Amino acid sequence: MSNRLNLIANHLAAPASATHPKGVLAGQVAIITGSGQGIGAEAAKLFAAEGAKVVITDIDASKSEAVTKEIVAAGGIAHSIPGDVMDPSFPERLVEETVRKFGGLNILVNNAGFTYDGTIHKMTDKQWETMLTVHNTAPFRLVRAAAKYFRTKNKDANKCIINISSTSGLHGNFGQVNYACAKAGVVGLTKTICKEWGAFGVRANTVAFGYIETRLTAAKEEGAFVEVEGKKVALGIPGGRKKGSDDAVKALSDIPLGRPGSAKEAAGSILLLCSPWASYISGHTLEVTGGRGI
């Protein structure tokens, strides 16, 4: 297992190919929300390694700056614009600062998000509304703010929007009615962008992740949290899933590949849909699950 994972890691870290010596995203400008950690951070580093000029944005300014410095130290191009995507004024500021810094915008990855779990009969309005705001309203506002840079006559430019969903949005999930509904809405947002903006050469796709190792799938007891209006919201799965434990084995039992995905692998699937090899893929929902749910 470790040898296979090492091969995957080496592949994802491989230098630009002879076909694309400066990277498959050379010179393109990308915004990746929630890129201070987890999947977003790995996607930012991968995009930069493939030649993109990447805007790192996270609600935690220190994490946003840290990822930016790491990319620059590795020879990539990155700029940090921290902020809260749920703030109605932030999406337009993020887009406009990006264009002022790098001169344009090619790729928008709506990745920022978190969970705020509860069963239906105990779900509060605040839990419900927060999930819709961060997973639906914030991406909508960002797409709307970016419209004038995507709805252009230049159909030859790579113009790509990736919205991040979850298998919870495709199949539902116990204790996540708010998250599941919001993530299902992401698919509708993507398909509508595809149909409205396809005439401008814009491609819009969704990536729906299954069990990827992030703070959202870690043991809740590890203490990861986000703050919502001053209240700490615990993240993760109650009870913990230590490697080798009965709970961990059970959690992996219906995944044909027999393991969770890594954040780097998740980032690779996002890059795939932004790459030249996906130039005729639009309106699609790519399930990244290791085979779970087939």
From TrEMBL:
Q: Report the superkingdom from the record.
A: Eukaryota
**PANTHER family, per database record:** 3-OXOACYL-[ACYL-CARRIER-PROTEIN] REDUCTASE, SHORT-CHAIN DEHYDROGENASES/REDUCTASES FAMILY MEMBER
UniProt GO MF annotations: oxidoreductase activity, acting on the CH-OH group of donors, NAD or NADP as acceptor; quinone binding
Q: Which part of the chain is the Ketoreductase domain? A: 28-200
User: What family is it from?
Assistant: Belongs to the short-chain dehydrogenases/reductases (SDR) family.
This protein's record includes keyword NADP: yes
- Keyword terms, alphabetized: NADP, Oxidoreductase
Q: Which GO terms describe its biological process?
A: fatty acid biosynthetic process
What SUPFAM superfamilies is this protein classified in? NAD(P)-binding Rossmann-fold domains
Asked if the Swiss-Prot or TrEMBL record annotates the protein with the keyword Ribonucleoprotein, the reply is: no
Q: What is this protein called?
A: Ketoreductase domain-containing protein
This chain's source organism reads Saitoella complicata (strain BCRC 22490 / CBS 7301 / JCM 7358 / NBRC 10748 / NRRL Y-17804)
